[in-house]
Structures are given as structure tokens and as C-alpha cells.
């Protein structure tokens, strides 16, 4: 059995949320890459411990794995500040890996919901500054078009104050029932929408999504992966046929997602 170094609550900044966990197998099968798990929670809650089982599983297979906390959005903290947190976390991860004689230079981003949004947005907007270069992504239920009516109003077409309060903080622009389709608000929402940044040099991406997701319409995900295909970008879409956003009604699909993540890591982190 491979011996693994378990490093918990590594500080990567001065904020109380600037902590990460890092698991380093001593006989890793991926000496040049790391899998970073980014937790979900609507950009304003959640914790890195939610991915503890994932990093236990993939580190047992020989992959260097990390999970990170990031600052929650607030009146003075938006999504782009959370992306800055990812850069800072990657710097700390690179240093710790070097201390353990692994010079990592490839990154796979894995996240769910808000974490998947941050993973994709990071890959399309921060590639040039990333301390460890994104090479692939595997994401669960990602918001990719944050400006459309069917995302903002949901499948029932109802304005929900909590959603607009959070999204206002995410994009740094006040959204209301009367203004969310105005030019200023739409421009701000498009800036945080991964779909708006795609190009033919985007990283290979696997997406896992619930057919009955009421928060992020499946048609957004299908449009997203179709666009990647048209651009010649490697991608996979695994649909949880019976599940909503929580992906809790198709237990057999979780085995397939883990296999897909391992396949992507094997293909793009070595």
C-alpha cells in the first residue's frame, strides 16, 4: 500500500477561509499533476471537507489531491475574488508538493455547482496566471449561462429574492426583479458566465448533470458541450436521468463519474 502524506488546514492567505487540505501519495502515479476539488454551496456556504471522500479515493489510486476553502461572496467579495483565492491556493499547493519532491505543473479542476462554476471560470479566465496550469476539468451541475431568464427565474419562472441577493454579490452588480435584464446587469452576469469565454483551446471537460435539475437547465449544459464539440474540444456529458441538482436519484452514476474523473486524470495529468 502506498504511503500518503495527509496535510490538513494548510494556510494559503490571511483570511480565515484561506485553508486547504493536500494528500500526497509517496508513490504517486501522477508525478506532474494534481486534482483540485472546489466545494459547492451557492458561493456563500460549504466547506472543503465535503470532498474528503473524493480525495481519499483518488489519492488511494496514486493521484495528488487537494481541496480548498475560499472566501464566501459578500458585499465586498465577488466571484473574481474567489478566483484569486484559487490562484493563491495553487501557489501553496505547488510549494508543498515541491517540499515533497514533486514538481507539479498540471492541474485538473473538479467541483460541484458553485464549485464547478468557479472551476470552469478559472480555467477560461486565469489560464495565463495559474501557478499550476489547468489541463482538464470534471464538473457537476455547473452554472454556465448566468444571465438567461431560465436560469435567473428557474423552471417555474418565479423571481426568488435569495437568488438575486447571492448573484448580486457574485457579479458585483445589484440585481432586482425590475433590472436583471437591463444592459448593465446583463453585462455583469455575462462576465461571470463560462459560456461567454469558450474557445477552441479550452481544456478537455467532462460534465455530470441531472436531467431534472431545476436550478441549471439541462439545455444549458447540452449547449455548452455541443459548443465544445464544434470547437474540437474533448468533452463528455454524463446525464443523471432521475436526478435534480443534488444528483441523488441515480446511485449507479456515481461509479461512472469516478471512472471518468480517473480516466481524465490518467489522460491529462501525466
Provide structural commentary:
By secondary structure, this protein is of the alpha/beta class. The chain has two domains: 4-143 and 200-268, Alpha/Beta hydrolase fold, catalytic domain (Rossmann fold, 3-Layer(aba) Sandwich), CATH 3.40.50.1820; 146-192, no CATH class. It is built from eight helices and eight strands. It has an eight-stranded mixed sheet, sandwiched between helices. Strand 7, helix 7 and strand 8 (235-240) form a beta-alpha-beta unit. It is globular and about 55 Å long.
List the helices and strands and how they pair.
Blueprint: E1 4-11, E2 19-25, E3 33-38, H1 52-60, E4 64-68, H2 79-99, E5 106-112, H3 114-125, E6 133-140, H4 149-152, H5 161-171, H6 183-191, E7 205-210, H7 218-230, E8 235-240, H8 251-268
Parallel strand pairs: 3-4, 3-5, 5-6, 6-7, 7-8
Antiparallel strand pairs: 1-2, 2-4
Low-confidence stretches: none
Give the beta-strand count: 8
Helix content: 25-40%
Highest-level CATH class of the largest domain: Alpha Beta
**Radius of gyration, rounded?**
18 Å
Give the CATH architecture of the largest domain: 3-Layer(aba) Sandwich
Order of helices and strands: EEEHEHEHEHHHEHEH
Number of domains: 2
Brief digest:
With 270 residues, the protein is an alpha/beta fold. Helix content is 36%, strand content 20%. The chain contains eight helices and eight strands.
